[in-house]
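quick one if you have a minute, typing this from the bus. below you get a single protein, a line of residues and a line of whole numbers that encode the local backbone shape. could you go over both lines and see whether the tokens make sense for that sequence. anything you notice is useful, everything is just below.
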Amino acid sequence: MDWKFWQKNRINTPRVDGKSKKLGKPRDLPQAVGRYLVVAKGLDPDWVWGLKCVEKPRENDKKTIDIRIFSQVSTAQHNVKVIDYESLEDHMDMVLFVGWYTRETQRVELESLVKKAG
């Protein structure tokens, strides 16, 4: 038997320049991002705090984090499984907001990808 339980399966960690790159799983919105959507954009707080996000550190600036915000209900209805930041690449119609933020300065820049009717 060839059991190598001590070796990890590296399906979601592609190699980039000899270093493994691990992307975060979907999680709740960071405080700064949620506050920005509620206060600056004037969105309903109950709806905003129900959203999920996936993040990826920016390659040239480790303090800046790229973010994609989506509705977990919408992705489940369309049978889209969100594993990490890259898994939404083929399903950008499921992404509500895209942008970046910094944890240190709490600066947030988001662009809405949802077209308004009317």
Remarks:
- The mean pLDDT is 83.
- Strands lie at 15-16, 19-20, 27-28, 52-57, 64-70, 95-102, 108-112.
